[in-house]
Amino acid sequence: MRRRVVVTGLSAITPVGNDLETSWRNIVAGVSGIGPITRFDTTEHATKIAGEVKDFDPEPFVHKKLARRLERFTLYAMACAQMVIKDSGLEITEENAPRIGTLLGCGLGGLETIEESHAKLVNEGPKRISPFFIPVLISNMAPGMVSIDLKTRGPNYVTTSACASGLHGIGTAFSEILLGRVDAMVTGGTESTITPLAIAGFNACKALSTRNDDPTKASRPFDKDRDGFVMGEGCGLLLLEELEHAKARGARIYCELVGFGASSDAFHMTAPPEDGAGMALSMENAMRDAGVQLEEVDSINAHATSTPLNDKSETVALKRVFGEHAKNLHITANKSMTGHLLGAAGGAEAVFSAMTLHHGIVPPTINLETPSEDCDLDYTPQKALEQQMNYVLCNSFGFGGTNASLLFKRYAE
């Protein structure tokens, strides 16, 4: 009998809301957070739209002087961490701090700082580079600052695996609790890279949507007119806790995390194989870890980037794993509303997966007007589904052929 791990806190900062309640309400309602980029002049860029976090004010969470020094991805993480601890009701003390850790996923880190500092180096010389340049840009500054802020003294590190970073972070945090090293972990993903270089780079890969004249319709997973993903930003965090530890303090339990799976495509730098073998293996590993039969899974929170190859491959992988049962799965694509949060995608989508089980609501996949011929499953188009779920599987896949899957279960004693 291994330890049981439950979710006792949730928080989110996304393109559709700066807290959990607002984000979830808009996700269920099918509200898009995609719009014109406001951070920089997009005149020369092929893509001029993104899922920006709107009207975020760090000052309620971080002192103004410190906030000016930190990157957005770290500020989002610190704000979400404070909200997730408040949501969980966990009190962090000197006695329990060594048994509470911080483990976040982040794909790219401080790209904005790199761009701005490089311009300063070229135009003004090396003496103009800030002493905070290196500390601010490194991706592990997010969990580091969260740990400093919350005074947690357990494991403190970051997982970086492209768009699977957040889910790998949660899965690794889950493993830390299972192994008995800690009793609770603040975990999830954070990212903010809506910058000129990032947009130009993904455009060079032909990965981004260029539906600039209709932003809210641009992210359209599984639709035949999809033309690429829309970049987003934000943070999604969970407080994972060992069951008996949670029960001893009377914690409210959203759901249980029962399985983690990971795999490699071993195929290509950026493209998944069309047979979905690596994706399938990740899902199979998560279910095997949990000891759950495929017929027991009710819903899939799909990676579903809105790129032609990814959506097709994920559909093939789902059929490969679930066979005939794939037709019974209620699949959702959160990115149709938030865009692709890159390293934070798994964090936010894990949060929404937990909320799906807690509330019995599968969010819709918006903009799915004419399904692609090779995407023929139930993707919960346009309207949320209210139905009690027992198991929700959440997927994240990334460049480098890296795959991760988490299996959540409706909590029962």
UniProtKB/TrEMBL annotation:
Catalytic center residues: 163 (for beta-ketoacyl synthase activity)
Pfam family, one: Ketoacyl-synt_C
Pathway: Lipid metabolism; fatty acid biosynthesis
Keywords: Acyltransferase, Fatty acid biosynthesis, Fatty acid metabolism, Lipid biosynthesis, Lipid metabolism, Transferase
Enzyme class at the top of the EC tree: transferase
Entry-linked InterPro entries: 3-oxoacyl-ACP_synth-2, Beta-ketoacyl_synthase, Ketoacyl_synth_AS, Ketoacyl_synth_C, Ketoacyl_synth_N, PKS_Beta-ketoAc_synthase_dom, Thiolase-like
Residue span(s) of domain Ketosynthase family 3 (KS3): 2-410
Reaction it catalyzes: (9Z)-hexadecenoyl-[ACP] + malonyl-[ACP] + H(+) = 3-oxo-(11Z)-octadecenoyl-[ACP] + holo-[ACP] + CO2; a fatty acyl-[ACP] + malonyl-[ACP] + H(+) = a 3-oxoacyl-[ACP] + holo-[ACP] + CO2
CC annotations in GO: cytosol
GO terms, molecular function: 3-oxoacyl-[acyl-carrier-protein] synthase activity
PROSITE patterns from the UniProt entry: KS3_1 (PS00606), KS3_2 (PS52004)
Listed EC numbers: 2.3.1.179
Gene Ontology annotations of biological process type: fatty acid biosynthetic process
Family: Belongs to the thiolase-like superfamily. Beta-ketoacyl-ACP synthases family.
Biological role: Involved in the type II fatty acid elongation cycle. Catalyzes the elongation of a wide range of acyl-ACP by the addition of two carbons from malonyl-ACP to an acyl acceptor. Can efficiently catalyze the conversion of palmitoleoyl-ACP (cis-hexadec-9-enoyl-ACP) to cis-vaccenoyl-ACP (cis-octadec-11-enoyl-ACP), an essential step in the thermal regulation of fatty acid composition.
NCBIfam families found in the cross-reference section: fabF, PRK07314.1
Identification of the protein by name: 3-oxoacyl-[acyl-carrier-protein] synthase 2
Species assigned in the record: Oceanidesulfovibrio indonesiensis
Lineage: Bacteria, Pseudomonadati, Thermodesulfobacteriota, Desulfovibrionia, Desulfovibrionales
